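fwd from M.: "can u put these together and see what the complex looks like"

so here's what she sent:
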Amino acid sequence: MSKTQKIVPEQLAKTCFHCGEQCAVEVIAFDEKDFCCAGCKLVYEVLMESDLCTYYTLEQNPGGTQRGVSSRANRFDYLLDQEIVHKLIDFENETDSHVTFTIPLIHCASCIWLLENLHQLNEGIISGRVDFLKKSVHIKFRHEHLTLRDLVVLLSSIGYEPAINLADIASKPAKSVDKKLIFKLAVAGFCFGNMMFFSLPEYFSEAELLADNFRGLFNYLNVLLSLPVVFYSATDYFKSAWMALRRRIVNMDVPIAIGIITLFLFSLYEIFIVGQEGYLDTLGGLLFFLLLGKLYQQKTYDTLAFDRDYKAYFPVAVTRVKRGMEEVIPLTKLSVGDIIRVRHEELIPADSILIEGEAAIDYSFVTGEEVPVLKRLGELVYAGGRQKGSAVTLTVQKSPSQGYLTDLWNNEAFLKKKEASLESLATRISGKFTVTVLLIAFAALAYWSFTDVSLGVRAFTAVLIITCPCALAMSTPFTLGNTLRIFGQGKFYLKNAEVIERMAQVDTVVFDKTGTLTNPAEASITYEGEPLTQQTKGIVKFLVNQSTHPLSNRINSWLEDVSVELVAGVTELKGKGLLGYYKGQEIRLGSDTFTGAKATDGLAGNQVFVAVEGEVLGFFWIQSGLRPGISDVVNRIGAGRKIHFLSGDHGHEREHLVNVFGSNVVMNFNQGPADKLKYVKKMRRRGRHVLMIGDGLNDAGALRESHVGIALTAAASNFSPASDAIMDASALSRLPAYLEFSKLSKTIIKASFGLSFTYNAIGIFFAVQGLVSPVFCAVLMPLSSISVVIFTTVTTNYLAYKRGLKTKIM
Amino acid sequence: MEVIFILIGISIVMASSFLWLFIRAMKSGQYDDTYTPSVRILFDQKVKNKEKQLPSTKSK
C-alpha cells in the first residue's frame, strides 16, 4: 500500500476521488488518488478491501463528502434499545430481519450498485434493494451475525448514513390505500371491455342472426360481469353519496350514485322481465371513465412528504450525561432536568439552558436565517437549532414536545383535519343539477302517464340514465389533474387537486420575511474601513476558502475574481473567526471580540472584521438580500389581494422594506411561531382566504392554519414543514402566474360543464320522448366523456403554454 | 355455431387470467418502483468465484 501523507494545500484545483469536491483544506494522496478528507479516504479503503471498486467506475466521484461527518463510535448506541429496534424493523423471524432506511445521499447508479452489493461487505447481510425515487433501501440481514446498530454503523462507514428521525419511531402508517383505486379501475375496465364485446351483436342489429339462446347467454353474461362493477368498483361513490346525504348536502357523487343504481336496476328489469338487452355495457363504461378520472387527479410525488411535523426533523437519540458518564438514550426518554451534551452539527432536542461550552446555533431550518446565533452561559437555547462548533452541555428545561417551537403542534390547528371545502365548484353545481334532472324526470313521467304509464316509466328512467353526470364529473378531475402536472413541471408541487380550487379563492397573501422574501444566498455585502488592496483581498479570500461558515461563503462570492494569496497555518475558531499567518503577520477575520474591534450598533445584519497584527482595517457588512425580482412578484400578487409580511426580526428593516414594496403592505415584526399562527387565524376569522408562504419550522403553524400553505424550499427533497404545497425557491417568481392560472382552471371547468350540459340537453330531448335505445346510450356516454377530457386537456395545456408556464404545448 | 359457447368460455377465462395476473403483479409491488430496475439492468453480473482478480481481459 502506498503511503498516506498530508500535503499543505498548493494545488487547489484537485478534486476528491470519492466525492468530487474540491480539496480545499487538505489533499490526502492515497493509492495514487486524491482525497479531500480522511473520511473519504476511509470509505475508499473499506470498499477496496471488499473488492467493491466498481462503485467508482459506474459514475465519476459518486460519494458524498465525509467532511464534518461525526465519527463518534457510540452515536448509534440507541439502536441497541429493543423498543426502538422493534419499531424500525419491518419484519422479523428467528434468523432474519428486514428493515427499510431512507438514505438522503442516494443520487446515482453507483449508489444503487453499492447498496445492492452490501452482502459482499458483511456476510450477515442477505440482500439490499434500492428504491431510487424514494431514496430508500430495503435490507434483509441475519440478526445473529449483525445487529441493527452494526448495520447502521456499516452503512455510515461507507458514507451512506441512514436518516433515522423521531417520525420513524412513531407508529408506521399503513400505505396501501391508493392501490385499491387501481384494482377497482382494473376490474371496471375488464368488465367494461367484455360487456362491450357481448353487446356487439346488439349494436349492429345482428341479434336476429343469432339464435335466441345466444342472446340470452350474452345478456346473462353481462349481468354476471356487471356485478363486480356495481358491488366492488362503484362502492366509493355509494359511500360518498350516502355520507353527503346524511350531512344534507348534494355532492357530485349523489347524481352519479342515482345514475348507477337506475342503470343497474332498470337493466335487470329489462333483461329478466321484458327480455331485452339492457344498458349494462354503458354502466361498465361509465364506471371505467369515472375511475380513470379519479386516478388521474391523484398525482402523487414520491419523494415529497406534505405532512411532516417536527418529529421528521428531530433526532431519535440524544447524549445524556449522568454521573459524569455519557450515555445515548432515545429522545422519548428524555426528561426535564436531564443534562445533555450536543456536539458539532447535532440538533438541540429540547429547550434548555446552556451550562458549559460555546454555543453557536444555526437556526436555518427554523427561521430561514443561516448565520449561527451565539449564546452565552445561562441563556435559554430553543430546540430545533443545530450546534456549530465544539460540544456544549445543557440542562433540559422542557420536554421535547412542549418547547417554544414544538408547542405549535399541540395547537388545535393540528388536531383537526382541514375539511374538504364544501363550496367546491362541482359540489355547488351538482346540487342544482340533481334537482333539475329529478324535476325533468318526474315531469316526463307525469306527462306520459296520462296516455301510457309504461312509456312514462321508460321516459323517467331514460332521463335518469342519460343525464348521469359522467362528463360533468370528469371535467373537474381532468382539468385539475392537468393543472397539477403543469405546476409540478414548474417545480411547484401540490399536495392534491383540491389545493388548486382553494388557490383560486385566495384574497390575502402572507409572506414570511426571512428566507422567503430574503434569500440567504443573495446577501448584500459592503465593505467599510480602510480600502483593501488586491493583496489583502487575496488573503481574505484564502482564509474564507478554508471555512464552511455561511458568512465565509458570502465573502468568498463577493471576492469572486480575486486571486488568492497563500496564508499559512489557517485555523478556524468556531463561533469566533479565522486565524492565519501571512509572511509572519497574524491575520484575523471574524467577530468584534475576536479581532478586538468595536462593533457599530444599530446596523442590521452581520459584521465581519479584518485585523492585521491586532490592528482593525475595517469590516464587511453583510445583510441578507431580497430575492431578485421579489418586489415585482409582490406587486403582481398585490393587484386585487392584500399583502402581509410577518417577520421574527425586530423592526429595523421596516423603512427599507417600505421603500421596496410600497406602503400598501402590512408589516408585522417580532412574530414568534405561535404569533404567526394566531395572526393567520385572526384573518381567517374575518373571512379572509389566506395564502401563507414560508420556509421554516417556525412558519409551520401559520402554514397549517392558512387556507393554502406553501412551503418554500431550496431543494424539494429537503425537509419542509407540513403544508399544502411545496415550492422550489426558483419557482417563486412564477407564483403570480400560478395564482392566475388556478383561477383560469376554474373557468375551464365551467366551460367544460357547459359542454357536458349540451350533451345532456340533447340526451334529455330524446329521453323525455322515450326514444333512448341502448346503442344510443352506448355511443353518447363515451363520446361526451371523451370529448370533455380532450377539451380540458387541450385547453389547460395550451393556456399554460401561452402563459409561459410550460415550454411545450403537450 | 355451438362452437361459440366454447370460444366464449375460453375468452372469458383468458381475460380473467390477465386481470388476475395484473392484480397479482400490482400486489407484489411490481409497479411501486418504476425507475430503479432500469438502472439495475445495466450492472455487470459478477462471476461468483472468489479468486482474486487477475487483470481482467473482459471489457468492463
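replying to her w this: The interface with chain A takes residues 1, 4-5, 8, 11-12, 15-16, 18-19, 22-23, 26-27, 32-36, 39-40, 42-44, 46, 52-53, 60 of chain B (CB under 8 Å).
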